[in-house]
Amino acid sequence: MLDYRFVDGTRLTSVIEALIFSSPEPISWEKISGIIKESEEELELDQKVIHKIVGQLNTRFEENDLSFRIEETGGGYTFVTQPRYHPWLSIFQHENAYRKLSQPAIETLAIVAYRQPITKPEVDSIRGVDSGYILRQLLEKMLIKVSGRADSPGKPLLYKTTTYFLKHFGINSVDELPKPREIDEILKDDDMAEHRRLLMERQMELEDEEAREIFEGFVEDREEGNEENTDSSDT
Fold first, then answer.
1. For the chain, does the N or the C end have fewer beta carbons within 10 angstroms?
2. Using an 8 Å Cβ cutoff, are 37 and 44 in contact?
3. What is the C-alpha to C-alpha distance for residues 144 and 136, in angstroms, rounded to an integer?
4. Beta partners for 157?
5. Model pLDDT for residues 183-221, shown as the tens digit of each residue
6. Do residues 54 and 68 touch, judged by C-beta distance below 8 A?
7. Exposure string for 148-184, b = 16+ CB within 10 A, e = fewer
């Protein structure tokens, strides 16, 4: 089964890799199995088989020293970058993303922060517009993450803020955020504008110096590691 090939020569492992790669959200094993069964009716894929195939893919990624792996999170599989690359990504995202949060993004981020964990339909209901694109932006900027699925019909994804959100806005927990009334009430008056302004001000306080410190710390750790390796070799 792990070496299965379709009539056109395409490997089953490559098809599953492509499905996970192209999905904007974590994709469940049931979804993967259903998509493949539409093309190959006799091919029955259960959770155990798909899990083995994902493990096989990760082994290949590791053997080739690639920067990413597939992880199971939020009720499905998704690609993630290896932790050792986070310092580099932190600098890149600081320079190219964090200062570009739009007013709708700040508004959506505030809703997630105060109502977390929260689903997309709930965010849409509060804002009165579709928030899918904004939520994807916030996911890419590592300010929110998928934390599971709700028990409501359709089991929509749940979103919550990340530890990077706390660091970005200079707080230790969401309890330190200003205490507003219900978000849907705030959106109806001028208070929300004040909360958006506060978040945007905290956002702009993250200066380039902090990014440099992160990078310098990363370089120092690498140099110390290299020195230790050299000392061991000399010995």
1. C
2. yes
3. 9
4. 149
5. 545 455 444 555 555 555 555 554 445 555 655 665 566
6. no
7. ebbeeeeeebbbbbbebbbebbeeeeeeebeeeeebe
